[in-house]
Amino acid sequence: MLQQPEFGRRLRQLRMERGKSQAELVGLGMSAAYLSRLESGSREPTARAVEYLAEALGVAVEAFEDLAGPNLADVLGMVFTSSDATRAAEARDLLTAALDGTPGADATTRWLALSELARLYSVLGEHERERDMLV
């Protein structure tokens, strides 16, 4: 089992890949505050929490043991299909991590990712970073 903060990054990655919000994962077995602390890395997960999250995400418990870097094309597809403006910050962070973790991505995919990242900066009002990204 991954330790924090890696567990939190993997949880967030799995959640975003499935297009789910934190609110969609909370329920009788998980409070919003606890889920947020798990994702931020400030709380260690219990075995019960891992089982609950695996079921809610539709993955095997073992999925939390693999910290494979995000595939840039997969992340880009997820970002393009997630038009919810409230998820713009999460999409920005995930796309940034995917760009950093995939230096050998083909030029077209990388260009699309950088263009989308600039758009996300605009949505978030981070216009100086948007300009830097476009340059």
Termini separation comes to: 41 Å
Approximate helicity band: 55-70%
Beta-strand segment tally: 0
The whole-number mean of residue pLDDT values reads 84
The helix-and-strand class reads mainly alpha
Main sheet summary = none
Globular, elongated, flat, extended or rod-shaped: what is the shape? globular
Model regions low in confidence, pLDDT < 50 over at least 5 residues: none
Question: Could you spell the SSE succession in H and E letters?
Answer: HHHHHHHH
Strand-residue proportion = under 5%
What is the helix tally?
Answer: 8
CA-atom Rg in angstroms = 15 Å
Any overview of this molecule?
The chain is 63% helix and 0% strand. The protein is an all-alpha fold and 135 residues long. The radius of gyration is 15 Å and the shape is globular.
List the helices and strands and how they pair.
Blueprint: H1 6-17, H2 22-25, H3 32-40, H4 47-57, H5 72-81, H6 88-101, H7 107-123, H8 127-134
Helix pairs in contact: 1-3, 5-6, 5-7, 6-7, 7-8
